[in-house]
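User: Teach me something about this protein's shape.
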Amino acid sequence: MPARVSAPRVVNIADLRRLAERRLPRVAFDYVDGGAEDERTLRENCRAFEAVTFRPRCAVATETCDLRTTVLGVPLQLPFLLAPIGSTRLFYPLGEVHAARAAGAAGTAYILSTLSGTRLEDVKAAASGPVWYQLYLVGGHDVARAAIARAKSAGFSALVVTIDTPVSGLRERDVRNGVRELASRRLWTMLPYLPQLLARPRWLAGFLADGGLMKFPNVVLPGIGPMPYADVGAALEKSVVAWHDLRWIRDAWQGPIVVKGIHTGDDARRAIDEGADAIVVSNHGGRQLDGVPPTLRVLPEVMAAVGSRIDVLMDGGIRRGSDIVKAMCLGARAVLVGRAYAYGLGAAGEAGVTRAIEILRTDLIRTLKLLGCRSVADLDQSFVDMPADWLKPTPHPALR
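Assistant: First, the predicted structure itself:
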């Protein structure tokens, strides 16, 4: 492990975040670090874990701890997967390849975003573990069908359909940092925002050597080719996913489908009715609708709605292995980590992702031993206390 990401310089995910902030220009760091509007949901995703406390079994010998789980029937060595994050080539050259390779080496899965800067075939070739493809309908149904076919042919094992992006959330840091202006490729429009790039010469050299402002090679537009890096928000607004879309997506994919972006028990049940094989309780890391509850707070409602009928995953606010343990105690089969590994990628490329995974794995083992629990499969609500009102179901609006 390189010294720049080893202890004592890097002890936790927050340390990787600080290194990423130093290496990346403000526009790239804030893209991954920020959230929508006042960033209330972004903050609450993390704070919610503080409301859940542990109930350890003491005087229990736990020489080894089993971190293995299964998701969609596929065994994983770790109970966390690397979440889809768009534009990770902004953090490090060929960022998706490095993240997928680190995930595979650790025995877990990587989820590739539609809005990635690397061809899905190249990402799959680099991965030694399961790789899933996250789907946006940008470019229209025919473009999405072509991407689905490519992912199927390349060997992606599950399709993750994100349902919480009818429009892109207002990420005010991106507006202030000139994301749209920098993507315009017009010098005079870009000029006021260029100093932040010039302030990180080593990053800039790597960015330019990697091809500069990327395109989206997995969104191939008729007569144009790969979609240019432009106003993604406008593209998403023209490609809203509705429940009925899951029918043709399921027919086109012919494989496991994961619905990501579940906020309520009602939507969890609807996802099952529409044929989902797994769901992800997610508020997009606080990047979409600000003011929704933190995902950990929503998890008990979702579990009460679906029980064991489907694999339930969650994401949002996970920075420590103890956070993963709390989510699993409340019913999650596994979790998705996003910012935690993205900070590592921004700090030191593949070595940083590997270090992030190592930190979370070590945290998990230590937490299980302190709880007196030998396996993540044994985790349940008896290991935690949570606020009593989290157990109250949220009534459907028609019943209020």
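Now, about its shape. The radius of gyration is 20 Å. Confidence is low (pLDDT under 50) at residues 396-400. If you'd like, I can walk through any region in more detail.
User: That's plenty for now, thanks!
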